[in-house]
Amino acid sequence: MTKKYVYDFREGNKDMKSLLGGKGANLAEMTCLGLRVPPGFTVTTEACNRFYDEEEVLWDSLKEEIKTHIHDIENQIGKKFSDENNPLLFSVRSGAVFSMPGMMDTILNLGLNDKAVIGLARSTGNERFAYDSYRRFIQMFSDVAMEVPKSFFDSVLEEVKEKVGAEKDTDLSAEDLKLIVDQFKKIYEREIGEAFPQDPLDQLYLATQAVFKSWNNSRARIYRRLHEIPDNLGTAVNIQSMVFGNMGDTSGTGVAFSRNPATGENELFGEFLVDAQGEDVVAGIRTPEEIHELNRIMPDVYKQFLDTSEKLEKHYKDMQDLEFTIENGILYILQTRNGKRTTQAAINIAVDMVNEGLITKEEAIMRIEPNSLSQLLHPNFDEKELKESEVITKGLAASPGAASGRIYFSSKDSVEAVERGEKVIIVRQETSPEDIEGMIIAEGILTSRGGMTSHAAVVARGMGKCCVAGANEVRVDEAQKIMKAGNKVYKEGDVISLDGTTGYVYNGEIKKVDPELAGSFEIFMGWVNELKRLEVRTNADTPRDAKVALAFGAEGIGLCRTEHMFFQEDRILAVREMILAKNINQRLKALEKIQPIQKDDFYNIFKTMAGKPVTVRLLDPPLHEFIPSSEEDLRKLAEDLNMDFNNILDTVKELREVNPMLGHRGCRLAITYPEIYRMQVRAIMEAALQLKEEGVEAVVEIMIPLVGEKKELEFVKSEIVDEIASVFEENSDRIDHKIGTMIEVPRAALLADHIAEEAEFFSFGTNDMTQMTFGFSRDDAGKFLSEYVEKNILPKSPFETLDKDGVGILLEIAVEKGKSTRSDIHLGVCGEHGGDPDSIEFFNKIGLDYVSCSPFRVPIARLAAAQSNLKSKE
Ligand code: ADP
Ligand code: MG
Ligand code: MG
Fold first, then answer.
1. pLDDT, position 855
2. What is the pTM of this model?
3. Within 13 A of 150's CA, how many CA atoms are on the CB side?
4. Given pLDDT bands bounded at 50, 70 and 90, which one contains residue 237?
5. Ligand 1 binding pocket includes 93 (Cβ within 6 Å)
6. How far apart are CA 478 and CA 449, in angstroms?
7. Ligand 1 atom with minimal separation from the 244 CA
8. What pLDDT is recorded for position 30?
9. Would you please indicate which residues are annotated as catalytic (active-site) residues?
10. Which fold has domain 244-341?
């Protein structure tokens, strides 16, 4: 049997997305549900892939298959393709597997030619409408299929409008439109060197090819890269009979969401335009009306639409994004898909739908992309400063968030400014897919035109980026690079602030504050906790970070880096004195100064964490990191410490290392200078003791970095920790503590069974482990890793997502060996990977007990932990 490349809408269903594309599969599903969908058929993604194999031409049998389906549609609706009396017209719509808003272009009214337009006028009794459709078709076909710039046509349209005194497109008469059609055809002929194609089949084949080709245009490629969509999926082409929203006052077109995509509120949300076709609503040429207005103008249609929206939502069990057209009072549904939404809305909707009994908690949890939570965790504007700020204008609150930055008026200028290190707000009349790069790197997006479903709004919500759209009081002049609000002019580089939650635009920069997380978020995260197995801790070195992390649900500190404490101003001098000491006595004297300060640090952190575990890592970095490098600073240091400058210089030279990452650091420091760790352990114990006396329990875990050999750990334990602990015990001040080690040197993973005999817990330091397993210097790999990814040598930077194939094996070995000698060994991760959802899935799989990540990633890690646990049970 020969392969089938074309499917009627009646033959497909929603689960056939990879073959029919998202749009095609859903059109088929809606057709089968009995909704009023204009008949049509889908040319498959497999045809697109074969098109590329066939050197980008349509092969004969495909053309035959298409013709058969055209006949079928003709029979269904009683119109004929290329008929001079009652012509059948088509829309040609691209449809990839994943929806890519605005990335691929649609051609409407295909099938019109000089004769059919007369037939259309006659059969509808509406000549104006017929020529309006024809001029749209010529422009779209030329632009999408033949790459003739749209602007050539727009300027003719504007000229004619001006000449006849028409304000809107709808003011043009049939005669005006005929004139426009003639001129449009001339533009085509001039640009292409051939007359505008009159054979509808030719038109259809050319349009189909154009859709296939658009799969590979640069905008589509950029979008795919941004969303990690593979390049080899291909797009389907949907060929669908036209319905007309531009037939007068009882016709129209619109887009709507079954719930509010910005807040999640359970209410129809959208826009429509009377007497309009296709892209008019999103193009921002005329300002659309709010969807509830439809209830006033055409109550029956409104009610039908509301019913359809509810029906589809129940059917798909998710919020829907719908496109519709009304032709002479009859409602047609042209598209549905799961709607893009802000994270806030996504959580509200998920929680509501669980309460409505539509989905389960587990389904709710699987629906939220863990990384998207960062949208909620990031700061809002400080209320007080906000009140005092000068309002420039108010637009639509298109995508929430708070952003300040310098304004730039093109994608290119924005990109260049960001490269210079500036924060940027991209300002456009209306964005288009060409602006995508600028939108990606900007802090926020401001447009003066377009509605809640305009390109800017949709794309910004998808990216989780702050956007104020349709701020129509400001005049944006992209050529002059200025923005006018009233009589004030803002130039390129001026600083403004956007509040995407209210739509207000402010002059200057505004301070930001941390968000409050309550309501649905709390309920949702409660479910997350019920369904996860991994414990989520945080990396925190200060009580402040610890507090933030606790508010985000951290269950302990998995990594408290003591070196960050060393750097603080009130002690760095003592630390330097300690490092520059010429002998042990001098060093001990300096350590005596540091000890009480360090005790205070631990006291405050233990107190903040009240009863939750705190893993303290003893000093890790090489000592020279604490000494300044410039001569000037060194002279100052000599003065402050009352030491001889040359003397200091000598020590600095001694400390210098060729390869510090592999040098004198971690537990190696303790082997040479045990007194440093002794001071730290004493500080920890004293802090814990003081809290104990105050009735607060400190759960202390002491972690030794960079161990590669069991005897290193033995040494630190017996010569340092146990020795100090015994002093406390003599005074019967026993402080319970665990001793464990980081597993970050590959040798430690390989000998984990031996090491586990001395270690009560392992914390995988996956940053160093990745560095040492690949032999990639963490500090230098940035220079070449991006090329590795671009050239497909590595799928991602292994410092972002754990390399399961290599580093992962070391982890598995360490887990197995560690458990073989200590079955209850506690296992965790404290590298950057502890906050990365993909890596967390792996950590869950290999049976770790906890992950630790930076405070702002804690909720993300919690959600990822719950999702990986649910996935592992599937
Ligand atoms: P996009 O993926 O960019 O939304 P679509 O293929 O959905 O592109 O087409 C855009 C718009 O064109 C639709 O929202 C609809 O208004 C109009 N359109 C598409 N097909 C038809 C049709 N068969 N009849 C009338 N209008 C159509
Ligand atoms: Mg669409
Ligand atoms: Mg390390």
1. 87
2. 0.81
3. 7
4. very high
5. yes
6. 13
7. 25
8. 98
9. 455, 830
10. D-amino Acid Aminotransferase; Chain A, domain 1 (3.30.470)
